[in-house]
Amino acid sequence: MRTYNQIILKPLITEKSAVMKEYLNKVVFEVVPDANKIEIKKAVEDAFGVTVEAVNVINMKGKVKRLGRHLGKRRDWKKAIVTLSEDSSIEFFEGV
């Protein structure tokens, strides 16, 4: 059994995720590619002490980039959009 540190890699802080957090009470995380919805739900509940209503996952494909005449590829990763209950919230930057 993996701990929440091994499942949740980092929160994704973007303009779109800030709007989702403010209006829809949804938080976005980058998670390990082999994690499923049940593991992600348990990891968020254990890590932040909140109640999770739903988890949506998106497999993000890495972009093909070039440096001069050499082609490379960024890594594939997984994004999890976690819907929190009405009375729950997660604050990443409380003192800022």
Largest sheet: 4 strands, antiparallel
Q: Mean pLDDT across all residues, rounded?
A: 94
Here the CATH topology equals Alpha-Beta Plaits
Strand order of the largest sheet: 1-2-6-3
How many β-strands, per DSSP?
6
The amount of helix comes to 25-40%
Q: What would you call the structural class?
A: alpha+beta
SSE map:
Blueprint: H1 4-7, E1 8-11, H2 15-24, E2 26-31, H3 37-48, E3 52-60, E4 64-67, E5 70-73, E6 77-84
Account of the 3D structure:
Strand 4 and strand 5 form a beta hairpin. 27% of the residues lie in helices and 36% in strands. The chain has a 4-stranded antiparallel beta sheet. The protein has a two-stranded antiparallel ribbon with strand order 4-5. The longest helix has 12 residues, at 37-48. The model has no long low-confidence stretch (mean pLDDT 94). The chain starts with a helix and ends in a 12-residue tail after the last strand. The chain has a single domain (4-84), classed as Alpha-Beta Plaits, CATH 3.30.70. It is of the alpha+beta class and 96 residues long.
Q: Which key features would you list for this structure?
A:
96 residues, Alpha-Beta Plaits, two-stranded antiparallel ribbon
Quick take:
With about 100 residues, the protein is an alpha+beta fold. About 25% of the residues lie in helices and about 35% in strands.
